[in-house]
Give the backbone structure.
Amino acid sequence: MTDPRCCRRKWGKLAVHAALVLACIVNIYPLLRIISISLRPGNRLISTDLALIPAEATFMSYVNVVKDTNFLIWLWNSLIITAGTSLIGVILASTAGYAFSRFKFPGNKLGLTLLLGTQMIPAGMLLLPLFLMVMKMGLINTYLGMVIAYSVSSLPFSIWILKGYYDTVPRSLEEAAMVDGTTRIGAFYRVVLPLSTPALAIAFLFNFTAAWNEYLVARVILSNSTKYTWPLGLFELQGQFITQWGMFAAGSVLITIPVLLVFLYSSKWLVSGLTLGSVKG
Amino acid sequence: MASVTFSGVRKFYGDNEVLHKVNLEIKDKEFLVLVGPSGCGKSTLLRMLAGLEEISSGEISIDSEVVNDLPPRDRRLAMVFQDYALYPHMTVEENMSFGLRIRKLPQEEIDSRVMDAASILQIQKFLKRKPRQLSGGQRQRVAIGRAIVRKPKVFLFDEPLSNLDAKLREEMRVEIAKIHKKLSATIVYVTHDQVEAMTLASRIAVMHAGYIQQIGTPIEVYSRPENIFVAGFIGSPTMNFIEGALETAADKLYFKNEALKVQIPFPLSEGVEYDPKSVVMGVRPEDVYTEHCLDKTLSDMVRAKVEVVELLGHRKNVYLECGKSRLLVTVPALYNVEETLFLWFDMNRVHLFDKASGKRIC
Amino acid sequence: MNSQVALSLLEVLQMIGFVAFVTLWIEAYLYTHFHYSKKSWFFPAMLAAVPLGVLLLVVVAIGPALNARQAVNIFLYALLAESALAVFFRFKADKKLALPYMLIMPGFVGLALLIAYPLVFEVYLAFHDLKLTTLKTWSETGYLPFVNFEHFYNVFTKSPLSEVSFWQLLGRTLWWTVVNVFFHVLGGLGLALLLNNEIKLRGIYRTLLIIPWAMPQVVAVLAMKGEFHSEYGFVNIMIGRLVDAFPFLASMGMHKVQWLSQHPFLTCTIVNVWLGIPFMMVVILGGLQSIPKSYYEAASIDGASRWQKFRHITLPLLRPVLAPAVTLGTVWTFNNINVIYLVTGQSGGTEDADILVSALYKAAFSFNRFSYSAAFAIVIFLLLFAISMLWLKFSKGTESAYD
């Protein structure tokens, strides 16, 4: 006594599954291929073999990429630059956002509109003058130069996020703190800031992932292989004539796995974090 | 505890003057309630005292010391906010000890003060909880506890009971009255609820549109309102207002309009200058009697037509049309109300106001 | 290795020190100027202290590369600026404003220097002539020849790279944007509709499907690019095997293709579509899930078919979600240098896939045509601006029609 609708539903569901499986395969296939290339033995790095787990799979490429290239240095450079940008960005933005949220001063509205406006400047437009400026200041190939370049895009966004969050924190909390005995800044530091950790974390995370994965600006400012960030390093491994497939693949895998995990883990939390904010005590 | 003085205090927002030359003296240990409708300026006045708003002109002094330029932290006040303003990331104990910890008081002192306040407010078992785990009433107690612990010169309350439901409001009113007695504190209390004002205050300051309309004890404000606004604001149910004019005949003073003419008895009419301009007569519903409450029919009873009858439970509200005015009278619930009623005003308890200025005539 | 790490740590310390020093300087400046501007000793003290402070700052930043004449210049300019500012603070500044300005200034000074100044500089560059040959003179003396509108003229007539012209680039960019956004939305919509069903493993599918977006873009693009390699990329390998297995396909014209050298635009488009669908999918899925089921139930009772439900309920209610996503996606696609550069950017790569912004990048940094690129950038910006204005007018117009 099967209901004909039930049968159609079953087929329908099967079709949906099939389509989704196909889409998933298409979406993750390049990643799987990279993983499989990274596992290939040294003498068969370049081959037309499509097997996902190659015969005689080995971790040699991983060892090689760490030993024979500046991979770890690249990671280290990326870490410093990214952490530096994110920290500076979050610190400066937390105070600036607070000022925009709580104070009336000439230039408040104008400043916010300008911040929004900077987001509309197309990528690459500022890159050239920035490069020339950095070059003239002698900051090519330096951490400071990179941090300066990255802060341009991270600051406006961070200020907007933090200002929006501060707007949801009731002013009466700071007023209570001031009557209780803090200064204006003390109220910010002791009461508002501890409550803003979700927004601070979001700003930090956003800036971190943006700077971590960035390629074009780094390409322009860093020219010394020991100063490369990891995208530059990887790109070098996929050179035009000799592609060091094995090491490139291994390096890519080493980078991608943590980034994927962070992204997948934090995306759920980010969404809930963005709706956090009503702290009526 | 301390006294507070406002002299000539004005507040402008841009060109808009929201407080007009306020003069107010609050004595030591007094419970002063600032009461008035929304937007009258009472919260602004309180916040200026706290240091949370700028003073446009005039002076505010605490204990004869002018505090205009002192930041809030130096004024030794404590404030209870309408939305409690409890620090969400701290426990109740940390909330209450926050101000003391900032001033680096010794730990034993902090602990003893917190315990004392907690026992006064019955919140000892909440000390380790966070605000979000407490109910509205409990949070309000914590907010009060945070103020008590500071041993301030003056307590400020900014509509603390507005967010509570009716039953809780009653309970907390009692608590606040007890605290006033126990601590012998100077309290400045802002509310829009005239019941809170009448029940808690040692003196009331009625405010409207940036002016103080009247300052006095609850009884004074109730029985001798100085203008129409105060008369209509204080007292529940609201006073009835009837427009008309004065008339003299044979040495007696009468109030007359198209529907009625009543004599104003002697003690009241003393010193009232006869003047043909319009007056408003105010009479509280409890001072208006129907034929059922009197065992006889009196002369000069006024006839009125019944509009709506509302059953309250033990009494009925009867809205009547009398000439151009609408009057409110209450009668026992069991009483059967017909289409017209005869009303008698207790003329000894009537108020007369000049219609143009609103001020009291007698 | 260890010495390199030590060196880099030293540099980090220098960096932190520099940033802290600049911030401190700004804060001290603002604090003294706001709080003490009414004192009698304000003017002389500031006129002496501030230019010296500026000089100190510059010395710390640039170091011994400063010569005496430049130092004197800097001192005098700072003196001039400070006198103007000191007057301003004396007569206009209010102590109350000290705190908010102190809070925002470090960030804003940075932004002003990093955005406002480069913009102005870019305009300056566009009207002068900076290229490889004049670069050395310029870094030493700061002199650049003035060339009026020549570069702007060249933008429209001469190629930014070696062959492709501005008009080709413009057309290609528009086509690129339209095609990509179209497939992004189509693919995103399709996948979102599939995911919107109550099926098992939905969470797993969703997680797997967003991988192209979650992966670092460099890795994702280079990986996909690798699959189009003429010998070892997946695409050609599969084609080869299919042709071997089914020879009739060869006669139909199927053969291995030199993707990167002969069809770079197609390759880039495929890569970018693959890359961009997950984002659209997530956005549309969110929109789909926010449509209350009761609408569909009411429609079922009314007798609507699946297609009718889709057309009259789903699509209209998706509009508020789609509109910003499509706008954002369009802007990102228009400005997408990454994909094109990573796929075709190495020297020896082709120009046939370039769009406006990627050509700009290459002209500036591969061909080192600095002034030309500045003019080019300004043209692109004005173009974008004009398009956005038109779009705003258009969408406002349709919005009111919708009401």
